Amino acid sequence: MKALMKLRPGRDGMGLQDMPIPEAGENEVVIKVAYAGICGTDLHIRSDEYEANAPVIMGHEFSGTIHQVGAGVLGYAVGDPVVSLTAVVTCGHCRYCLSGTPMLCSERKSIGSGVNGAFAQYMVVPARTLYPIPEGVSLKAAALCEPLACCVRSVSEVCRIDAGDIVLVSGPGAIGLLALQVARANGAKVYVSGTSADEPRLRLAMQLGAAGTITVNRESLAEAAEKITGGAGFDAVFECAGVAASADGCLKVVRKGGRFGQIGLFGKAIPFDLDLLLKKEVKLSAGFATTPDSWRTALRLLEAGTVDTLPIVSDIFPLESWETAFDKMEHKMGLKILFSLSQQN
Ligand SMILES: [Zn+2]
Ligand SMILES: [Zn+2]
Predict the structure, then answer these.
(1) What is the pLDDT of residue 344?
(2) What is the whole-number distance in angstroms between the Cα of residue 107 and the centre of ligand 2?
(3) What's the whole-number mean pLDDT along residues 265-281?
(4) How far is the CA of 150 from the centre of ligand 1 (A)?
(5) Ligand 1 geometric centre to CA of 279 (Å)
(6) Ligand at shortest distance from the CA of 102
(7) If one looks up domain 2-144+309-340 in CATH, what number appears?
(8) Is the pTM of this model over 0.70?
(9) What are the distances in angstroms from CA 99 to CA 83, 103, 262, 280, 339?
């Protein structure tokens, strides 16, 4: 099978390789991948800004159907539509593994960076990390379950958005548009900010339920925040762009005692005004990756139709066109770009 791999360090260290179709060991399944999304993390892996255990098949956002069931696996059969938690290798006995936060385990290896991932026709995962895709949720919609679960982790589990909160989401990329929908599901009134280059994305934010948008290079974020919140500032802000100016803007417009949720990945250290954080008593929170609970919630939100992932899918490419797909993503053209790995809907 063809697989898109990080083969060695360096921006030219990615490429398609022929790999053997994996076999399911005990308590494992082989998944026939339907769709796999390119994530900001994959761009960081391409640029050596996020660690990868090269040579490794990339891709951690995916959906698929079970192709082979290994010995000892109960409750799953060939053909079942599934997604999987990304932290597939963990020690199983540290305080993080035992408290439902396996992504913090020091021995964690995630698919697509630590172990072989979803940018291939087939992949193998342990059965214990699987989640069945609910009826009525398409494989295409479920391919965004991982980034959605990341947003559930940050917005619902760590930052705990409440009904009535006025929230700013900075950065209307795929993560921002999912964070918007999760915050709305929790009862918040959500505004989304971006630059004029983001205008189509800001329009989509309105379709997906934003109360308003702010174009930061056309209008003052501070003035817009003042108008929206009657001078108080936002109850919570989510930095979803992974850009220093966006983090700075968020910190300036969050209210005293408000919450700052970091979701975007910068790929480097950035200047951040901790004096301002201190003086405003802002609570800084970060959700890294996903918990088993956040996957359950994400799948329920998809099943109920509370979150719509399909409008966020902008392009679908075959794996062979990976360079076009990655270039498009790096130039912020399109939103969530998926690879189609097999002919399924
Ligand atoms: Zn991702
Ligand atoms: Zn552990």
Answers:
(1) 42
(2) 6
(3) 94
(4) 8
(5) 33
(6) 2
(7) 3.90.180.10
(8) yes
(9) 22, 11, 22, 31, 34
